[in-house]
Amino acid sequence: MEEQKSHKKHKKKDTKAKKATEEAPRKENPNNDLNREKVEQLCSAPPNNECADCQQPGTRWAVVNLGIFVCLRCSGVHRSLGVQVSKVKSSNLDSWSDAELTLMQILGNKVANEFYEAQMTAGEKLSPTSTDDEAAHFIKRKYVDREFASSNVDRFYKAAFKKAHYGKYAKQPGDDEPVEGEVEMRVEEVTKTAAVDPQVAMQELYGAAKWNTKKEKKAKKEMPVHGVFGVVNVPAEDYEDRLKRVFGSFGIPLPTADSSEVAAEVPVKADGDVPPDTPQTAAEEEEEAIPPVVEDNLANESTP
Amino acid sequence: MGWFDWARDWLSYFGFSNKSGRILFLGLDNAGKTTLLGKLANDQLHVHRPTFNPNVEELTLGGIRVKTIDMGGHKEARRLWKDYFFKADGIVFLVDAADRERLYEAKNELDLLLQTEEIAKAPFLILGNKIDLPGACGEEELVHVLGLSGLLTGKTTKVKDPSVRPLEVFMTSLVMKMGYGEGFCWLAEYLKNS
């Protein structure tokens, strides 16, 4: 019953796959041997001569879709993960297509690890002397759970596959743009964006938010808020004016009786027409700064 | 133990004599040949490194002593296969059902095997492995892609005609312990006679 269900589920995919397999070219790649030689050269030179996972020297095995060269032990682990995660090939026992070779040239251990070990701390790396179980656990964490991978790893690999015409980006017949040479540079660009700091990445994704800087935050806070009884939060420098206006409209003189200092100051201000942003003493500022807050609180309580 | 025990019980139920046979495990690399051998030999699942040299294991399936030979599946290693065809009583061909891109390659290898003269009489058990993985193809599709439609000889019916080569597809998952018990029961039916 279950099998039948899954059959139905995959039916669409199935037909697609059938077509793909039927249309696959029968002929062997003529430069298989040449490609294999190139792959062997590639895996014998640094940084590809050390296993991408456990750093053991001697890498005869490649995980093509990850673009890495690994040792025999780690290739066994990769094989066990299934082809959805890693496609393992031998550098000398398998045949290599042009696309696979190009992909390996673009990626390689260094670039691939930049992405898959982006968030790795120094102690977490697998050592060549580690046991098989440790290696299996580590490789699973690295490629299945992607614990250390950078966030744009998928995007990067997609770009690399496209450049190499690997997998579903396979070259169509009659479409022969040169691949080698310019590829490396373009991928370099992608690698650079990989090292971008998170704030910039956020801005790219969500755009620059208005309240990003502290200054803007403050400015936003001090914008007048209109409550039921008019403006609720009066900025400190407007307070004097507003107080005068409010008291004046009710015909009440300014409350000079409370403090002689204010009484002494106010007439001077009114006479001399001092601009609001004149430097004032610290004591004054404190005194002036407090009332709006109180008013603010009151207003907040009264407004539903 | 599951299917294996079940298979063993089933085989001994029919009381096979102490016949001996020789089975080859063939298939593309990473199809699960060595894993299958390990599973049959000591019922353990291991992560195996790629096979370079053929692994030979003596098994007793029910009453039949079987010498199973597990060959490497890489392209270059496949050249060795023909050296072992001689006196092969049965072929087990494993296909990674989850690796859709390489089904075609598997079909090519299978076609070559089916055309080989030395093993023209040997029963052919085809195991579509790894059906536990997401994206694995079903039996219908596998039969279609491998071009076996109409060639299968039936899972329960036994072929009497000596000129017809027994051939059947079973879907298996070694991880889930599914399917291979039935497959080997089917194969044992034919080994018994040979």
UniProtKB/TrEMBL annotation, chain A:
InterPro entries the record matches: ARF_GTPase-activating, ARFGAP/RecO, ArfGAP_dom, ArfGAP_dom_sf
Basic and acidic residues composition bias: residue spans: 17-36
UniProt superkingdom: Eukaryota
Coiled coil regions in record: none
Keywords, ordered alphabetically: GTPase activation, Metal-binding, Zinc, Zinc-finger
Keyword Zinc-finger attributed: yes
Record's compositionally biased regions (Basic residues): 1-16
GO molecular function, one term: zinc ion binding
Matches recorded under Pfam families: ArfGap
One cellular component (GO) term of this entry: cytoplasm
Region feature (Disordered): 1-36, 266-304
Residue span, Arf-GAP domain: 36-148
PANTHER family for the chain: FI20236P1
Protein name per Swiss-Prot or TrEMBL: GTPase activating protein for Arf, putative
TrEMBL record, chain B:
Domain of life: Eukaryota
Residue numbers binding Mg(2+): D29, T34, T51
Record carries keyword Cell membrane: no
Topology versus the membrane: Peripheral membrane protein
GO molecular function annotations of the record: GTP binding; GTPase activity; kinase activity; metal ion binding
A GO CC term assigned to this protein in UniProt: endoplasmic reticulum membrane
Predominant subcellular localization, coarse grouping: endoplasmic reticulum
Subcellular location: Endoplasmic reticulum membrane; Golgi apparatus membrane
Keywords (A to Z) from UniProt: Endoplasmic reticulum, ER-Golgi transport, Golgi apparatus, GTP-binding, Hydrolase, Kinase, Magnesium, Membrane, Metal-binding, Nucleotide-binding, Protein transport, Receptor, Transferase, Transport
Gene Ontology biological process terms, A to Z: intracellular protein transport; vesicle-mediated transport
Binding of GTP, residues: 27-35, 73, 129-132, 175
UniProt cross-references to SUPFAM superfamilies, sorted A to Z: P-loop containing nucleoside triphosphate hydrolases
Family: Belongs to the small GTPase superfamily. SAR1 family.
Name of the molecule in the record: ADP-ribosylation factor family/Signal recognition particle receptor beta subunit/50S ribosome-binding GTPase/Ras of Complex, Roc, domain of DAPkinase/Ras family, putative
Protein species of origin: Angomonas deanei
